[in-house]
Amino acid sequence: MARVKTCIDRVLPSHLMEPVVRAGPHAEAVFFFRKAWPNGSRLRVRFLSGSSAQRELAMEQANWWTPSVNLSFVVSNDPDAEIRVAFDPSDGAWSFLGTDCLGIPRNEPTMNLGFQDGGTSAHEFGHTIGLGHEHQNPEGGLEWNEAEVIRDLSGPPNNWTPDQIRHNVLEKYSVDQVRGTRFDPKSIMLYFFPASWTMNGVGTEANEVLSDTDRSFAALMYPKQGPAPSRTRLEVGGAPVSASIGQPGEEDLFTLTVGQPGRHVIATGGETDLVMKLFGPNSQTLLVAEDDDGGEGLNSRIARSLAAGEYLMQVRHFNRQGGTGNYTIRATR
Questions:
Q1: What pLDDT band is residue 152 in, cutting at 50, 70 and 90?
Q2: Distance CA 320, CA 300 (A)
Q3: Alpha-carbon dihedral of residues 185, 186, 192, 194, nearest 10 degrees?
Q4: 37 close to 129: Cβ distance less than 8 angstroms
Q5: Which of 29, 155, 246, 250 could form a cystine bridge with 217, CB 3.0-4.6 A?
Q6: 276-322 per-position pLDDT tens digit
């Protein structure tokens, strides 16, 4: 049979059991919501190797996503670029997921494009914005012939161990805190699998372009609609600031100046189920901390020792599709 090339879904070891989220009952994609970039982020792409043709193809396919999402990709030689791409042919194709890229040493790649067949580069940049593998969708319809899958992927070009095969292909993502979804057989995040790998003898197609659902789902995760969110300044030790998630999918942004290094607490209050991320210092993409229900009830609370500098807080409802509500937010020492 023809050799099957698949992607390694690189997840930080501490995040292996982390939940994924669906946009709602009509969505057909897998998104790691805790790994989302702040909406409107400008993501720098630094190439660690590769020919001009390889780099151009990578950027061309990265930009397949940009008409749909409020994110941009720019080529950069900055050592601290958020995305760092290698082209090692012996290391397959893989990418870390979303903001996990920020935890990788700066001299190491966050993505490898060992092959660029079809839409492989677009697939890997899908991981970079937080999308998972469609074949590991908990609601997916694939019933694997495990013996065949393990036999084929144990050999070249993958040469994976049984544990790697289970992690990258056979195991479904955790269903904890997951909203209902359908399986999208046309997704760029779904690789070709031969019929011999499934119990019903039906394989998958080689999807080489973004599906309509890929575009619509990514647009829901990083919406472009409406004006850019305003930024409300918090003062350390100031009174709680009242705010509201007025529309589903809305993001509220807050800024904070830390003058004296030390332990700070940023917490929300109220009855609204919120997720909060903290970025900085002096960076809108460097993730410092995140929290879902660490505060009272369904509120978020981040307690960290912070260096002096400017920080950005991103607050959104846990339910991106339908969640709204009022809340307060406060920063203290």
A1: confident
A2: 16
A3: 40
A4: yes
A5: 29
A6: 999 999 888 888 898 988 999 999 999 999 999 999 999 989 887 78
What number of other Cβ atoms are within 10 A of residue 163's Cβ? 8
Give CA–CA dist 210/47, Å, rounded: 23
7-10 and 93-96: which strand pairing? parallel
Instruction: Return the DSSP state at 67.
Output: T
Highest mean pLDDT among 51-55, 88-92, 183-187, 245-249: 51-55
Which is more confidently placed, 222 or 3?
A: 222
**105/108 Cα distance (integer angstroms):** 6
Distance from C-alpha of 46 to C-alpha of 110, rounded to nearest angstrom: 10
Cα-based angle 285, 290, 292 (whole degrees, multiple of 5): 140
Is the CB of residue 38 less than 8 Å from the CB of residue 312? yes
Cα–Cα distance measured from residue 177 to residue 319, given in angstroms and rounded to the nearest whole number: 10
**Least trusted range by pLDDT, from 64-68, 119-123, 192-196:** 192-196
Name the amino acid, one letter, at 287: L
| 21: pLDDT strictly greater than 70 | no
- pLDDT at residue 1 in the model: 41
Buried-exposed string 223-251: b where 16+ CB fall within 10 A, e elsewhere: beeeeebeeeebebeeebbebebeebbbb
pLDDT at position 302, please? 97
Q: Is 13's pLDDT higher than 50?
A: no
Residue-level length of the chain? 333
The order of strands in the sheet holding 72-75 is: 7-10, 93-96, 111-113, 83-86, 42-47, 72-75
CB 268 within 8 A of CB 301: yes
Contact 264, 288 (CB under 8 A): no
**Contact of 29 with 217, CB cutoff 8 Å:** yes
Q: What residue ranges define each of the domains in the chain, with the CATH number in brackets?
A: 7-221 (3.40.390.10), 231-332 (2.60.120.380)
Residue given tokens 């958020």 in the structure block? 82
